[in-house]
Design goal:
Length: 174
């Protein structure tokens, strides 16, 4: 049910190709992906795209790439992201990481955001910023180099094809 029919490799290749074909400069595409990944680290599940698109627009990044970058938060990565951000937030806020026990069942029965803010959401938000920035910088560099290389290879192929067609055209005219 959770595994794509043709596997994760094909799904990742699809997303990679989708990002490579987005219009705009390599910087715009990479900035959009980086903003999306940064947004994915925040604990506000369901609102990642709403955070990423305006931020990408402000930074001159691709809004489509930002939306695709938010898929970094998915059922495979969230169980890793959430504890990391909470532990980092506890450390930054001066609490002892791993020392606090939280009764999530009791907190979620009332669904009161004010009760969830201090013990859960605040440390996760504070912890998501440094971890998200490091991850976003990594994805910016990776995406920038990949898009630039993809486009350079494409231009080389098109130039070679045009050169070949031109030589075939001039050779048959003689």
């Amino acid at each position: 049910m959770f595994v794509p029919k043709r596997g994760f490799r094909r799904l990742l290749a699809y997303y990679r190709l989708k990002v490579m074909r987005i219009g705009g400069s390599p910087h715009a595409v990479a900035a959009g992906v980086a903003v999306g990944v940064l947004s994915a680290w925040t604990p506000f599940l369901g609102f990642h795209v709403l955070f990423a698109i305006p931020l990408a627009w402000l930074l001159g990044g691709s809004m489509i790439a930002a939306a695709i970058g938010t898929t970094f938060a998915n059922p495979l990565t969230c169980p890793i992201i959430w504890p990391l951000t909470w532990e980092m937030g506890q450390f930054i806020l001066g609490g002892e990481p791993g020392s606090s026990h939280i009764d999530f069942a009791a907190l979620l029965t009332h669904l009161d955001i004010s009760q969830l803010w201090r013990p859960v959401l605040e440390p996760m938000l504070v912890g998501s910023l440094p971890l998200g920035l490091v991850c976003a910088l990594f994805f910016y560099a990776l995406t920038y180099l990949a898009v630039r290389g993809f486009r350079n290879r494409r231009i080389s192929r098109l130039t070679e094809r045009a050169r070949h067609l031109k030589s075939a055209e001039t050779g048959s005219a003689i």
